[in-house]
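Can you give me the bound-state structure? Components:
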Amino acid sequence: MKIGHETIPRTAISTSNADTIVVRGKDLSAELIGHTTFTDYFLILLDGKPVSDVRRRVLDATLVAIAEHGLVPSVQASRMTYAAAPEALQGAVAAGLLGCGSVILGASQAAGELFAEIAGEVDGGKSLESAVEDVVSARRARREPIPGYGHPLHKARDPRVEALFGVAQEAGAELRYVEIAEAVERAIPGIVGKELKLNVSAAIPAVLLGAGFPLKALRGVPILARTAGLIAHLLEESEQPCGFALSYQAAQRVEYTGEVPPGFSQEGGES
Amino acid sequence: MKIGHETIPRTAISTSNADTIVVRGKDLSAELIGHTTFTDYFLILLDGKPVSDVRRRVLDATLVAIAEHGLVPSVQASRMTYAAAPEALQGAVAAGLLGCGSVILGASQAAGELFAEIAGEVDGGKSLESAVEDVVSARRARREPIPGYGHPLHKARDPRVEALFGVAQEAGAELRYVEIAEAVERAIPGIVGKELKLNVSAAIPAVLLGAGFPLKALRGVPILARTAGLIAHLLEESEQPCGFALSYQAAQRVEYTGEVPPGFSQEGGES
Amino acid sequence: MKIGHETIPRTAISTSNADTIVVRGKDLSAELIGHTTFTDYFLILLDGKPVSDVRRRVLDATLVAIAEHGLVPSVQASRMTYAAAPEALQGAVAAGLLGCGSVILGASQAAGELFAEIAGEVDGGKSLESAVEDVVSARRARREPIPGYGHPLHKARDPRVEALFGVAQEAGAELRYVEIAEAVERAIPGIVGKELKLNVSAAIPAVLLGAGFPLKALRGVPILARTAGLIAHLLEESEQPCGFALSYQAAQRVEYTGEVPPGFSQEGGES
Amino acid sequence: MKIGHETIPRTAISTSNADTIVVRGKDLSAELIGHTTFTDYFLILLDGKPVSDVRRRVLDATLVAIAEHGLVPSVQASRMTYAAAPEALQGAVAAGLLGCGSVILGASQAAGELFAEIAGEVDGGKSLESAVEDVVSARRARREPIPGYGHPLHKARDPRVEALFGVAQEAGAELRYVEIAEAVERAIPGIVGKELKLNVSAAIPAVLLGAGFPLKALRGVPILARTAGLIAHLLEESEQPCGFALSYQAAQRVEYTGEVPPGFSQEGGES
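Here's the bound-state model for the whole set.
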């Protein structure tokens, strides 16, 4: 079935013949394996641009920052899935990644777009403060959330934020988006009516955009990072299972709010 | 519902309070972000052991080797999924990872288990040649495949194999499993009746086991690596789509082998 | 981690004790198994409302209409996934469902919301024609697509549309949303500048909303239906594989648009 | 890339032209929509055989039996995923289905294969008792589980078992596999050393095989059924969320067993 106009698939990432695998113009076996770190290679895969120390250091820092935060919902879902289907590690990883959506880990992308929009207003002539005020107020008026601010556990600033800003500075990245991110943090109380501190999902785009990372690829950063964390959790699950115990605990406080047939007693039962 | 005996979930990977996130005993913000590469961090997540130059170099090489090989089936599946559901990047990555199974990318794990079994026989007193002969013949007798040998495109040795063996040697990894892998390659013609050369899925465990990488985590290596490749393909798909074009081409040669109602003509049609 | 305000999980769908499983207030074993069809049960699960002949007939018709349409992209992705990971049927089904997104099968939900918006305008006092004109023009002005109109293969009206409208009429469903759907079809040439005929994704909500099916559950209909189709394709794949052949064909016409190293020749190669 | 020998994709399920969609030899719009229930259509999709009242009644009963059992692990995983990524209903359904694996819902397939093996021994001349004894003892000797027996909640016979056996009898299905299933139940105490009563995952293949359902498609039954249950849970989740509350409860009793940095206190913290 022809969907859309295009019938010829094109790609600029990789080609190969029987002897050589080419990735972004380079011979994978001769030029990349052993000559590049995985972090650099991710950058090469994304846009083929030459490796830079700034980009690698900042990207490494963000991947380390977001890979793991204990038994968060997506990790619980992944471990429950592995407990039920241990024949398919890939399925349990996939189940965990499916929770990297708009509410939780997708906020990095959304925050990056917010900062880019503010940067555009500044480029158009506004002061930073006015640009922040206008863009954040407009979001608020549309009842849209301000992505990357506030955290259920880290009420003061998420501790990963300082660490990431420190790396960006040391590595010599452009700090423009860090300044935008902090200006948004300062403006939030006046616009939203309460303090919401920078969390890791705002700090990631703030430092990555200043290191030349592609805006549209931001959402890939938490996804790649969490894959590492999920694999570690699933290795632990295979040796010291807790997937079903998590599910057991989750069900202990469930309240059933529907009807029951005559004579049915939940005493000793469970939903 | 209580499934299994355990009701208390336990984990040794991460804990946190409002100020500090702990991963494998270290303060994430103070000790890890900015101080460790993503590759090192993956190793820390997996087993908490101290970072070593050998482990990092070998792991980096394997992740780079397996991350990308063009529009292979799992990448096609992922790009088709993104074309149909662009609101959910995580779903398209998940679809691609679901193809990292026993037939294709899971072979790294299976080959590692084969090499470990041979190493065990050698530890028990057999010569390398006898151990290889016995273990490979037994698999053959049970009609099981020899994972990690033969490749649909790279009929001579997969070019990534030499590159990985070279990195292992340079980095100072133990070469025991490389020797086992090559002994299996030499034994295959006599046992299987045809040459099947080492492919990347055998080379990966051969070098990683010699660098102290945990056997049970081997399957995680292609999964993590491919996630990077998939994200790059999906970034390209968002800018220069080919998912539907791939599907269109795939359907051009489909033969429908079932019945049709009276008067139905496939002229101009398509399945 | 406490995300959101709620800490007590509540559900009204099912509870159980050691002897009895309760679903929507009924004893599953005594009152439902053997007494209800799967289609009725899906309705009971969704909202617990009593079964009606109209709802069942219309829902059956829509599930049959959308379950299968040959080797469409999501089926190709699913069969490729199964070929690579045959140990996990559930993973291949999941990969196929991940392609039920906003561009392809999610259009049923979006079209239902369009019709409900138009119905709301009519309830507010507009004529059907004005309501259609206003709502469709506003979407067009926002450059949003008109979901459920036009089809890559069925340029005249999708043949499933008449069949579904016929079932709705025979079953005695309310036809209000069918009329809205047809009014939209008539208005499109004037607003969009070309004919786009009703396709199955508009016909499904048109008949289901008239049968009292919940608006928010519309997206579940193609998902449930396609699951049946995917299982049939994967049973066929296990007996007569074509997943890798589809991928082979898809790759035949791929054009590599990136650079290559000196001396690399694509002759005889493939991406 | 050419994987395997086949390059031409073939299918016998569906084809189409601009006017007609053919499924299993029939015109979808003219002969199937409005003329067949979804349950019948699933059977037609699977093997194209004519509809029979026995097959439909037994299949309906099994789909109803297995679709829903409250907040089991896969439903928890699915609701957590939806809470984190509400933009992608299909992703949350996929996450739930990924838990339909070998340990939990895949047991229907495994039990069916057990019964078919016993039936084969009986066809070869053994008595039912000897065949059961031999096959079950051999599994036990290989330390393999006996799939479909025992249940974490329903210690006496799972209440769905009688209901399914009653439907099979009333519908006039062959009861051979029901007899085999009960003979296995009687033999288990002598072989395993404790009572393990028939659960729904053994009853499903026992009745379906007697109704002519294809052995290799058994695993599709819980997958299709659970899709309906998952959609209902996700509709409820969109209106009355509990995904994050489940995760919160699951984390309350987590014990962190790793090391912590000097000065770190878990008081008031959480993993």
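A couple of observations. DSSP finds twelve helices and five strands in chain D. Chain D touches chain B through 55 residues (CB under 8 Å).
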